[in-house]
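sorry to bug you again but im stuck and you know this stuff better than me. what follows is a protein written twice so to speak, once as letters and once as structure tokens for the fold. mainly i need to know what kind of three dimensional shape the backbone takes. anything you notice is useful, everything is just below:
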Amino acid sequence: MADLSINTPREYEPTFGDYVALLKPRVMSLVVFTALVGLIVAPGSLHAVEMFAAILFIALGAGASGALNMWYDADIDAVMRRTAKRPIPSGRVEPGEALAIGLGLSGISVVMLALATNLVAAGLLAFTIFFYAVIYSMWLKRSTPQNIVIGGAAGAFPPMIGWAAVTGDVTLESVLMFALIFMWTPPHFWALALFTKSDYGDAGVPMLTVTHGRDSTRRHILGYTVLLAPVGLGLALTTVGGPITIAAAVVLNGLFLKGAYDIWRRDDAAAEADNYAVEKKFFKLSLYYLFLHFTALLADAALGAVL
């Protein structure tokens, strides 16, 4: 866990960009997008000001989670090449500042979302922050190779929060949006773990590649992708789906299954020979997979409004 001491002289004066980086803006952008989709496709509507407020406070909650995660994980972030340049391990932001920002934004985002929308949405946001900062970061990440599987729930809640902001309820449609992200998360991150080589092992993080090996990880990627496909198709057949979402689900899940199968057929020698080209291609596809699934939901919502 990060050292809370801030008594040593500051060698670097942080900029606004350093504090923004602390909030994990890339992750926040995905949170904002999926929450916005959940909000738009939900039955009913919010005033434009309420909609803006809901998305703003959901984004702040996501940023709070990111800051708390970076505070707690500063020690392992410093070891991993992929994360060594983050604000805390690079010395640009003090650990105590990150903790204060994370806690402050957590309180503000939850209270303001409750005032702007309803207690159900605010409660889901509060649980999401707690789940990511405590259940995942402080417990699962360092204790089990199932860290990504269970911890993936934190990133899956935003569309459910957006839906609840409009409806004040949790229904099948929002559960399936949650399930889509939840089931997508393991193959997405395990593909990354396959080509980041020794990062997780060096940091002592029990990622599946470290505890069970790369062959087992490839099998798990295929297994979870097989389970993911019916979730995507099931969501397309609910009231928020339509012809565009159905077509997207068929094509995207077909491509994802093909990519997972190609990874499953490989071994370390083949992967190293082409510098993990297949794994990197699958990881890139996984980014488009989620974005295009939720874009299709928006397109069907727009089509339904026109018709």
